[in-house]
Amino acid sequence: MSEPDLSGALTLTGPEACLAHYRAWAASYDSGFAEGMDYLLPAHVAAAFLAAGGGSPVLDVGAGTDLLAERLREMGQAGPMDAVDFSAEMLGRAAEKGIYRQLVQADITKPIALPRQYGGIVSSGTFTAGHVGPEAFPHLLALAWPGAQFALSVNLRVWAAQGFDRAVEALQGAGQITALQLIEVQIYGAAAAALDPDHATDRAQVVLFRAV
Ligand SMILES: C[S@@+](CC[C@H](N)C(=O)[O-])C[C@H]1O[C@@H](n2cnc3c(N)ncnc32)[C@H](O)[C@@H]1O
């Protein structure tokens, strides 16, 4: 079997395949993928969240090995941060670093067994091809206090193709979210061109809104 990588991650065909991929990728995710590709997305999401006013406690959605929480702490986010992810192996790597207050293993495409207790909900890299679609948004809104700040990255390859644009408009139209802002960012830095030219210039939308 070949080594797990980004191209494999973006062509996953369902939750079982996704879980198997991250089981194999967890050990080399930070040192191989994130460092090798100069993975900028967690820093962009963290900066956008804080610039929009932020909130606490924070839930990091599809938290993986904790890269977004690390960037948030470095940029001054105080207060508790929790992680939700369905991969035990990715959460295991996060646990070793000790940033999160609580690690929750759950599939975010289904209702999540947590109380409504968050002032901030953030995510980087989880809403992308082969991963999670906009069907997760209602499950996240169910965990947010009124006024909670959201900052969620959505890969531009799936933004319209998987109906994220329509889902966000529908939530706004229904009065469930407010203060919608979209910021387009580069996902990877210069080093990515040598490692994975097909994805090196990929961009994402950072979707900012507040729960009503
Ligand atoms: C590309 S990684 C991003 C990890 C981290 N946020 C980062 O930016 O490095 C995507 C993460 O989403 C998680 N994931 C994928 N589908 C999921 C689902 N249905 N429910 C919960 N987590 C999921 C994977 O296990 C993986 O850790």
Structure description:
There is one protein chain. The chain is α/β, with parallel strands linked by helices and 212 residues long. It has one domain (6-211): Rossmann fold (3-Layer(aba) Sandwich), CATH 3.40.50. The chain has ten helices and seven strands. The chain has helices spanning 6-9, 15-25, 29-36, 41-51, 67-74, 88-97, 137-141, 156-159, 164-173, 192-195; strands at 58-61, 81-85, 102-105, 118-127, 144-155, 177-186, 203-211. Strands 3-2-1-4-5-7-6 form a seven-stranded mixed beta sheet, with helices on both faces. Helix 6 links the parallel strand 2 (81-85) and strand 3 (102-105). The longest helix is centred in the N-terminal third of the chain and has 11 residues, at 15-25. The protein is globular and about 45 Å long. The termini are far apart. The mean pLDDT is 95. The structure holds S-adenosylmethionine. S-adenosylmethionine (SAM) binds next to helix 2, helix 4, helix 5 and strand 4.
Keywords:
212 residues; alpha/beta; Rossmann fold; seven-stranded mixed sheet; 7 strands; binds S-adenosylmethionine
Can you describe this structure in just a few lines?
By secondary structure, this protein is an alpha/beta fold. It has one domain (6-211): Rossmann fold, CATH 3.40.50.150. Helices cover 35% and strands 25% of the residues.
What does the oligomeric state look like here? single chain
What number of domains?
1
CATH topology: Rossmann fold
**Any guess at the CATH architecture?**
3-Layer(aba) Sandwich
At the first level of CATH, the class is Alpha Beta
The largest pleated sheet is described as:
7 strands, mixed
Count of DSSP E strands?
A: 7
Amount of helix:
25-40%
The hetero compounds bound to this protein are: S-adenosylmethionine
**Helix/sheet category:** alpha/beta
- Strand fraction band? 25-35%
How many DSSP helices? Answer: 10
CATH homologous superfamily identity: Vaccinia Virus protein VP39
Q: Summarize model confidence as the mean pLDDT.
A: 95
Parts with pLDDT < 50 across at least 5 consecutive residues = none
Terminal residue distance: 47 Å
Strand order of the biggest β-sheet = 3-2-1-4-5-7-6
Give the overall shape. globular
Spell out the helices and strands N to C.
HHHHEHEHEEHEHHEHE
Rg calculated over all Cα atoms: 16 Å
